[in-house]
Amino acid sequence: MTILVTGATGNVGRQVVEHLVKRGADVRALVRDPSKAEFPAGVSVVQGDFLDVDSLRNAMSGVSTLFLLNAVVPDEFTQALIALNVARSAGIERIVYLSVIHADLYVNVPHFAGKFGVERMIEQMGFKATILRPAYFIQNDLTVKDVITGYGAYSMPVGAKGLAMIDVRDIAEIAALELLRREQSAEPLALDRINLVGPQTLTGTDIAAIWSDVLSRPIRYGGDNTEGFEQNLKQFMPAWMAYDMRLMGERFLTDGMLPEAGDVERLTKLLGRPLRSYSAFAAETVASA
């Protein structure tokens, strides 16, 4: 049977493909441009797009399990709903969907609200799915590495509530394990939600202190200015997306991204090893510079 991975050329999707191949799965990767796709030997590459229904029908033909990952785009919600409807028509029951933690709490943040709508569709249409709800991706902070090292400031609006940041590599491995668990089950498994969190919940001040230790010089936290955060983002992303990210940052400040009891222990058991820490990420980043 075949596992279809969408978003396969992105950071998470590419790693999901690699983990599945290492574990002997039959993998099909959905990509917009096959000429730019580089995957391990044995991966079947199919061209398609979430808004091209015929290409989705072709990609999902003969598929038993689907990994659904949608990029943050203006029509993300529509793309996901089309994909799920085509999946249902193709007879696919087994799904792993990459949502976001607190999708039901950050109700005013567009890409959170869209993902929560997708979660509701999955549940109400009776899909046998794992809904993965990751917290903030640790690797997002690579975008502010030069600010940290060059200006001595950590500028992400993390705030004082704390974010349970998780390494992208852990997200991808957990997604692959869940895909295999569903694929290999004799019967479709019941709906499940898993919060994907890191081993620590860190405030902006905590993260600045980690960078201070790794760089052996003072790094200050200066990220609570969400208006300034939006203006900076507008230099390299569309205005609507920068505003979306600002709204998310404001919810960081008021609500944080907090794990539930037992989340860390569950993920540690699932992986069979400790979760990667932010400190390890910072040390790796400095060492590879």
From TrEMBL:
Please give the start and end residues of each transmembrane region: none
Check the record and name the InterPro entries matching this protein.
Ergot_Alk_Oxidoreductase (IPR051604), NAD(P)-bd_dom_sf (IPR036291), NmrA-like (IPR008030)
Please, which domain of life does this record's source organism belong to? Bacteria
Domain NmrA-like: where? 2-248
Report what the protein is called.
NmrA/HSCARG family protein
